[in-house]
Amino acid sequence: MEFLRAKSAGFCMGVSLALNKLDDIIEKKDLPGDIYILGSIIHNPQVVAEYAQKGIISADAPEDIPAGSIVVIRAHGITKQVQQALSERGILVVDATCPKVKDACLLIEENTDNGRVLLLFGEEAHPEVKCLLSYTTGDTVVFDTLEECRKCDLDPTRKYCLAAQTTQDKHVFDAISRELLKRKGLDLLVINTICDATRMRQGEATKIADKSDFVIVAGGYNSSNTRRLAQVIEASGTKALHVETADELPLDDLQKFSKIGLTAGASTPKKIVDEIQQVLESL
Q1: If 0-12 CB within 10 Å is exposed, 13-18 middle and 19+ buried, where does residue 92 land?
Q2: 128 flagged as catalytic
Q3: Last residue of a domain, one of 145, 165, 190
Q4: Enclosing domain of residue 154
Q5: pTM, 2 dp
Q6: CA distance 70 to 66
Q7: Residue of 50, 109, 124, 128 marked active site
Q8: How far apart are CA 85 and CA 70, in angstroms?
Q9: Where a domain ends, among 168, 190, 212?
């Protein structure tokens, strides 16, 4: 059996920065209160569990964080309204939002402050999407497929701005752009908010898929960018399997393949990718 591992598999820059900020806070002494995360610092259950063992508290809602505490904003960001409300309650806010997400927020804010309607390609329930939407005060339309975009009834007398969740598929976004630009008389401004690391990771995954009979995609089941990698691979014609840990690998089935690829989401720790590689190489 041959084995191919993506060079980009594992933490992206934004995830590494967020965890480094959290680690720095943990190492500080004489803190004013407990350390909280609003939601998951990154979308990986194993990493979240490790920080829970260090005393980091995950809060489901802003109201669950008491005054005088410290809250580290997750890599996906939170809405600007929630961040302001936390500060006003006397909570020390440490912003660990991914710089690429923050850049996307500011681009959206800049290009919708003149009344343009935001058309956002993303998952409406995802925390990053909620964060992005909070940076426009105008109307918004959210869709997560090309088919949903085609169903959007847009008023040609209004102006629009098209953007995307940073981890979306660039090829699909380009198809959506072409679809909307074909609409006669539509005033549409397209801004590129998809992260370069996401494009690179998806491109490398496609190349590995072309050389493999089967591809393992490692990462949290709640990780949007990991799910997207599996979708991109399968769209290229190669079967993919999304797993969180090496324990979930179907060893008997994998032995049927002569060449297996391995990639991982941007929030997947290197040690998990290494463990999966060790199992695959032992087959």
Answers
A1: middle
A2: yes
A3: 190
A4: 100-190
A5: 0.89
A6: 9
A7: 128
A8: 14
A9: 190
